[in-house]
Sequence to fold (294 residues):
Amino acid sequence: MDLDDYRKHSAYSDPGRHGGLLDAVASDFPTVAATARNVIVHYRAGGVELPDERLDEVNCRWVDRILDTDQSRFPVPLAAERPAVDRVAGCCRDHTLLSVAVLRQHGIPSRSRVGFASYFAPDWHHDHVLVEYWNGDRWVWADPELDPAGDWGFDGYDIDPKAGLFDSAARVWSAYRAGTIDPERYGVSPELPIRGDWFVHDYVLIELAHRQKDELLLWDGFGAMTEDIATADLTLVDEIAALLLAADDGDETAEKALADRYASDARLRPGPQVHSISPVSGTVSTVDLRVSRR
Fold:
């Protein structure tokens, strides 16, 4: 994909009838991020206790549905303050998706990046999703969940890709295959078994999907994904990870190869449906991705 592709909405970022709400948000990243935090609260790490009946909002999936939910409670501009407990329940993917939607609405090339962050807890790498946007000269990594008033010790709106604060899934997979990291320190939480080699493997495929503007939920399953590394096609994911890293380094041939392989190999992309495991209830459901509007 070229820059112009990333200016355009995907099925996930398209605000539908809510386009005017995004038009009204200024396009500078601090404002975009503050707006995303004002609309969405992390369902388990947002500092508030959300009612059980609202936790399933983490599965809204599409920006238009996120905004449907928000506007049903607050039929006002997105800048108008919402109490944290009444914001839409979501996660890093949703903060990023809404931010990407605002940027694309303003014609700014942007995409989501899937990987692992080391700045939330010592000795642990949480699965995480960042915004990557084109500032006119280069791609910038930015975390819309981070309030700049916090004492993070780095600029969360311009994260150095070489600083080790956030590593793409492809980079983590390549390090695992080289034997230089312990994959058991990469996952959802130190308290949960959702971690390890199979988890990093699957995140490479989710990273590829997001790069191709299929901004899936982090708990969607499709194609070559697996919960048992013994059943994985390691060569396939090695190849995709290498192409992702080369594309990050500006290799246009690698970027085209990713798009071509994504289009031609059904193992690498979601079909019309995905299997989704709700992080709230554990319920497994089949979701029809062709139905993005109610």
In short: The chain has a mean pLDDT of 95. Strands lie at 40-42, 88-90, 110-117, 125-134, 139-142, 166-168, 186-187, 220-221, 273-277, 284-288. The radius of gyration is 18 Å.
